Amino acid sequence: MRTKKYVIKEGGKYVPSKDMKDIAWVSDDKIYSDAKKDPINFWGNLAREGLTWEKEWNQTYEEKLPYFNWFKGGKLNFCVNAVDRHLDKGNKTALIWVPEPINEKPIKLTYAELYDKVNKFANVLKGLGVKKGDVVSVYLPLIPEALVTMLACARLGAIHSVVFSAFSAEALKTRILDGKAKVLVTADGYYRRGEKSELFGKAKNAVKGTTIEKVIVVNRIGKRIFGRKFLDFDEVLEKADSYCKPEIMNSEDPLFILYTSGTTGRPKGIVHDTGGYAVQAYWTSKWNFNLHDDDVMWCTADIGWITGHSYAFYGPLLNGATTLIYEGAPDFPNFQRWWRIIEEFKVNVFYTAPTAIRMFMRVGDKHLKKFKMDSLKVLGTVGEPIDKDAWMWYFNTIGKGRCPVIDTWWQTETGGTLINVLPGVGPFVPTISGRSFPGTKHIIVDPKGQEIQKQGVVGELVQVSPFAPGMLHGVYKNHSKYVKTYWKSFKNKYDTSDGAYYDNGLIRITGRTDDVMKVAGHRLSTAELENALNNHKLVNESGVVPIPDKIKGEVPVAFVVLENSKDGSEKLIAELKKHVDLAIGPTARPELIYFVSDLPKTRSGKIMRRILKDILNNEKPEGLMTLVNPEIVEEIKMVVANHLSK
Ligand code: WT7
């Protein structure tokens, strides 16, 4: 059979071919103008067509800013939509799990097997007193039990709060305390680059002094678990009844909380609801990736992040497709691992982050030579701006010039993708995300909120009414933070904190405009990192800024002022890095630490991070007049230069 080519070049542009148009759910850009005429009804129709409701809503959209509700009065259960309604597909595979150790066999779960486990685990949670509206903390690696746990929560109407397994005990603890969870589901560990990575010890430390009464532990690396609080996942599952009645929820009831970094020192609990989130997860998966129910989708994100929630788990399952997850590192045991997985399991849709693409690009094409990967149809990227080289490499080397690259812009807060082109519509332009998903609208504004329509002029990206169904439903128990973060800068517009401009009518994202950085696609705030450093007993204060990195996109660099004007040492650098590992996790570890005697500050005491950035980038720092201590700039320059000359 001829290998299908889904992309062709026409008029100097990449556009969908006839092969793509033939299979595309959406192949005409009329969908945008149709949706625009009546976006509320457009989403109402999608909600009706895509999901199974117990009761239809009486109001499709209600807006009382800064809050808005979709499908008010509508009732449904999320788990029924992701699992139960696909049971008629017989023994169709819902999940393929690839463990990291190569001698360990992958596991496939059919929808029927998943249904059985989810029902049982829901009964386990119920037996521990978990009920509708309770928060359940989840601290699991990428293993099938993560999916079972999250769906079991959804079945009960409990709110899951997943914490990234590479985060520290302390990071887990703050999130447990915020949600007041009584149950934590975790594992004894997981495999990472051939080593056993321990999780249980961290979980045990984290639950001390919290509301957690029981901890359910998955046995992944064979560690012995003991203690009254701790239960073995398989043991309790085996004993549980095999049917649990799904709790019928209101569309606007919360489905999960996921913490993300903002400009302050504490992460925010982003709340996502049930109906609106499900509708966006369903339709964006279907249209962006042209996902059909016989497709295998592999989204490489961990479930500790929103991408893992929406596109490794929920989107593909709501569509009745097969999702693949891989436990381990992309380079284990070598750089061929990912491509072998794509070939072996005939992956059709592959969704990853620019940081991984850049890593593979750097190690060279030799690792890819023998893989045809002709099952691939659509490639996706997410998490940070992708540069032209990485885009072209992804398109040519992974996609063999056959598959569209869909550059999806979105955020933890938006629940699902919002700006990208559709595979059957195009065009596919390197570095350009594209246009707002049908039925949603983003504009670019100046600092006063005035719309900028001119091409090539950078402004702030905002979303306007009606707000997308998957958007956050506030910050968990923190109304003022919700208002301050998203609704203060521009009247009646959701502030994305991203910069953007138009290029031939399409949107190009330039990156964050606040003190948030993206390290290997992971979101980190400078304030959170500074807080962590400042908590060390020898640190008086610190300023953290990102610098560009060839693979990770950005990495944090810290300027540290020590107590009692002490001098720093290599030993202290190592200690501070370790301190950050413990406070947040290794993802946040500063790449470089400079000891300085003071930080550039304004009269009001604000740290001028921009000046630190200029120094690192070897640019002339502007605005020194606003500083109370301009003389410090020369000292910091010397410290940086000295380091570079070493
Ligand atoms: C921030 C949100 C959304 C899932 C993963 C990240 C940046 C995201 C793109 C893209 C340029 C992007 C933005 C955004 N971002 N996708 N395709 N092009 N930038 O979620 O951790 O909440 O981060 O990621 O800066 O605000 P997140």
Q: What's the total helix number?
A: 19
Average pLDDT score: 96
The N- to C-terminal Cα distance equals 59 Å
Percent of residues in helices comes to: 25-40%
Quaternary status of these chains? single chain
Topology:
Blueprint: E1 7-10, E2 13-16, H1 18-23, H2 30-37, H3 39-50, E3 59-64, E4 67-72, E5 75-76, H4 78-82, E6 93-98, E7 107-110, H5 111-127, E8 135-139, H6 144-156, E9 159-162, H7 169-179, E10 183-187, E11 189-192, E12 195-198, H8 200-207, E13 214-218, E14 230-232, H9 233-239, E15 249-250, E16 254-260, E17 268-273, H10 275-288, E18 296-299, H11 306-318, E19 322-326, H12 337-344, E20 349-352, H13 354-363, E21 378-382, H14 388-398, E22 405-408, E23 419-420, E24 435-436, E25 441-445, E26 459-464, H15 479-486, E27 494-503, E28 506-512, E29 516-519, E30 522-525, H16 526-534, E31 539-549, E32 553-562, H17 570-583, E33 592-595, H18 609-616, H19 632-645
Parallel strand pairs: 6-19, 8-9, 8-10, 9-16, 10-13, 13-14, 18-19, 18-20, 20-21, 21-22, 32-33
Antiparallel strand pairs: 1-2, 3-4, 5-15, 6-7, 11-12, 16-17, 23-24, 25-26, 26-27, 27-28, 29-30, 31-32
Helix pairs in contact: 2-3, 3-10, 5-6, 5-9, 7-8, 10-11, 13-14, 18-19
